[in-house]
Write a structure and sequence with these properties.
By secondary structure, this protein is mainly α. It has a domain at 42-142: Arc Repressor Mutant, subunit A (Orthogonal Bundle). The protein contains seven helices and three strands, in the order ααβααββααα. The protein has a three-stranded antiparallel β-sheet. Helix 2 (43-54) crosses helix 4 (70-82), helix 2 (43-54) packs across helix 5 and helix 3 packs across helix 4. The longest helix has 27 residues, at 12-38. The chain is globular and about 50 Å long. The two termini are 31 Å apart. The model is unreliable at 1-5 (pLDDT under 50).
């Protein structure tokens, strides 16, 4: 197949998709910050709590997932721990490593926060299951992750 002389990055459709992704991200972050504030959390604290509510995680791994310095995560976990939303505990696989884990109250707070995010949920609810599956798989592909299901 012959290659187009025009780069995909300058293709009008690609530019439009990139702009739309940027708009989605901006709206998501704005709503996420508002939802976090309603729970007296910063956006960063809410994101860490959301990650830890899924499973106990070493703070180094949390930093990698959030693309930030481990010292930032340590400070965030310190503040969440003072509020009783997370706790540090030894990693069962390697007791030399500490993991951060959401407490019951932390998981409940993360659930309430997630439930208050209407921006993505409402439009996604209008898509069929097949459309949501395709969207999920395309997003995973863009992130270099394997699609599941």
């Amino acid at each position: 197949m012959a290659r187009s002389t025009r780069s995909r990055s300058t293709d009008p459709l690609t530019r439009e998709v990139v702009d739309l992704i940027g708009s989605v991200v901006a709206r998501y972050y704005a709503e996420y910050e508002l939802a976090a504030a309603h729970h007296s959390l910063t956006g960063a604290q809410a994101r860490v709590l959301a990650l830890l509510s899924r499973e106990p995680t070493p703070m180094r791994k949390v930093a990698q997932q959030l693309k930030c310095e481990p010292s930032n995560v340590t400070g965030i976990v310190d503040r969440l721990e003072v509020r009783g939303l997370v706790e540090r505990r030894p990693d069962p696989a390697d007791r030399r490593v500490k993991v951060a884990a959401a407490t019951d109250e932390g998981r409940a707070t993360a659930d309430r926060l997630r439930e208050s995010l209407d921006f993505a949920r409402e439009p996604l609810g209008e898509l069929t299951n097949a459309e949501r599956t395709v969207l999920r798989d395309l997003l995973k592909r863009m992130l270099g992750e394997d699609a599941e299901d």
